[in-house]
Amino acid sequence: MKKLSLILLAIAVLTACSSSDFQTTRQSDMNRLTKSACFKMPKVSVPSFPGRTFNVVDFGADRTGVLLSTEAIKQAIDRCSESGGGTVVIPEGIYFTAPITLKSNVRLYTEPNSFILFSHDLDLYNIYDEWFEGIPTKRCTSPINARDAENIAITGHGTFNGNGDWWRPLKQSKMAPGQWKKHLKEKGGIVANDIWYPDSASLLAQSYCLDQNVPVIDDDSLWQVVKSFLRPVMLHFVGCKNILLEGVTFENSPAWNLHPMCCENVILRDLNVRNPWYSQNGDGVDIESCKNVVISRCSFDVGDDAICMKSGKDQPGRDRGIPTENVIVDDCVVYHGHGGFVCGSEMSGGIKNVQVTNNLYIGTDVGLRFKSTRGRGGIVENIFIKGINMINIPNEGLLFDLFYGGKAAGEESEEELAARMNASAPPVSEETPAFRNIVIEDVKGTNIKRAIYFNGLPEMKIKNVTLRNMSISCTKGALFRQTDGLVIDNVLIAPQTGEAFSLAPTVENVSIK
After folding, report:
1. Which of 219, 272, 384, 422 is deepest in the core (most CB within 10 A)?
2. Which DSSP helix (H) or strand (E) runs through 13?
3. Which residues are catalytic?
């Protein structure tokens, strides 16, 4: 017995040392990245947790995925929090659950070969006041959520699946005939205008939408009726501090995948973020009104924009007035998405001090995507992008679109864009978005449809953009409109047809080196 105790003690010491070493390595990586910033970046601290562990199986969790493990997971988190914090362990197995709420000083650790599947039973999801796509509205509880928590983490090797195919509308045009028939057979639902909806209530909710995904309903009882339309984001942290997401896979979200909002000191590291390519609003990560954020060594394969910076939409976003600031995105790869790295279009609170380095985009609709429109307001500034490789981009490698109309690149007709561009320019006001002071350098692109497209507003041109050390092979070259203070330094564009550079008369103060 004494020998066994000594062995167990030795294992505990080795585990503690290993964990401590790993913590040191994490913090060293964060320090290296923050010191490399082109702006004054505050230190981003890796959260740490007491050595206590709480295994969900000990609280009755079912590892076969047959029975709901909601209560067991909740009890483990509650006991961990009440004890002063520690780690809640989800061991190997399949776990079927309702939403999980994290609490302060709790780390959720998933062992290898663990799979957490969230139920699509609407009765398990409460409706509450929330924001979606930058607008205040009501949504269902997010599968993973936390509010005003500090020192929280999800780490390890497991997979979280949001069961999003039961929630999301699906366009028939995005599916092969066989896939479409299989989806209808398995999921049931209702079809209208070549779009599948999970039920008639989801279709009904569309009639209440002034905006694409935000219904306007005065009768509180009606929210319950259209509950299936109120798709939650997969992971939603609001007003939290000291967050670590590391090592795990987040997939198949009902709407956006990862959405920290109004949070501080956020680390996303070594994550796999996946959604089906056809997933409606299937963004990878949306950093909204957060500060001091590091996204490092993550991979994305999603159905909408992949790595997005946001800060609220129109008047509600301006009233909130919290920018997204001090963000580093390094060593990430995007396999599919409407944009690899994206600012907007909901940027009404502003986006500033962002550095993106060493990213690879493979087949994204657009490589680097900046988008907004009249009515947003807000300022996007001090953006530094370096070391971007992109290949097989079916639209623009670099796009500034200040006439954004809500559709993915390539989905909008020339007539629709022209109609907005021909509208009378309003006077500059708080509703006028501004993009300025942006440096993009060391970019390589192969098989790009159009190398670059700048389309600013006549009343607020895109200002002070430097493009340096770029090489892009493309079908069509670069087109610049409504731009002031453009520097083109050692930029090689090799189009198959037309000119390499086309400068509209609305471009001012250009320097080509």
Report:
1. 384
2. helix 2-35
3. 304, 338
